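Dear colleagues,

I hope this message finds you well. In preparation for our joint manuscript, I am sending the GNAT family N-acetyltransferase (Branchiibius cervicis) sequence together with its predicted structure, so that both groups work from identical material. I would be grateful if you could confirm receipt.
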Amino acid sequence: MEQLTIRSADPELDAWACAHIYAPYVTDTVVSFELDPPSAPEMAQRIGSAIEWLVAVRDNDVVGYAYAVQHRQRAAYRFACDVSVYVHRGSHGLGVGSELYRQLLDRLERRNYRTACAGITMPNDASQGLHTALGFTRVGVYHAIGWKFDAWHDTLWMQKHLGGSGPPAGEPG
Ligand SMILES: CC(C)(COP(=O)(O)OP(=O)(O)OC[C@H]1O[C@@H](n2cnc3c(N)ncnc32)[C@H](O)[C@@H]1OP(=O)(O)O)[C@@H](O)C(=O)NCCC(=O)NCCS
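The corresponding structure tokens are as follows:
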């Protein structure tokens, strides 16, 4: 098996693969709160507007992706991102998610972001385990916040501090 490569996503090259990985989590699970899987053009738009979007490639196939978007729009939130990660169903448990996240968090820290936030529909042992393993801590639970497949679902929020303490070293860039 070829080595895993992590690189920045290219909206044109990688949108279809990311949409393909994501679609079953939309159609078959409550991991995603979307109801309809995004098209490749929509995914390309998301890749292009993200703060960071990384893909994991093995044997020339994209097997997972992780990304960061702005947490909220108000100016004081500008050092905080929401992050997420999706690994192809056939590639779970092989270290893809953790390598994507390690590199994503490292890039965010180098760009002066100070907090990574993650919202996880409960239950999701794999996601909670991954975030905990990478140093995220529990913030709290939004109860019955999402309605999908005729049921209410809870979202656990976790966060990880990036960089040192004290004032920011510079603006996010
Ligand atoms: C969550 C997800 C990204 C994990 O990716 P992965 O490549 O399978 O995870 P890794 O192999 O890198 O595992 C890293 C760590 O995560 C934790 N973990 C992974 N799978 C786990 C599971 N099924 N149960 C508990 N912990 C798990 C472990 O701590 C693991 O470290 P270890 O192997 O040393 O025990 C993957 O399962 C996935 O794509 N799930 C569906 C989409 C999803 O839930 N995304 C997150 C949205 S919030």
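For the figure legend, we might mention the following. The two ends are 36 Å apart (CA to CA). The beta strands are 5-8, 52-58, 61-70, 80-87, 115-121, 137-148, 151-161.

With kind regards,
E.M.
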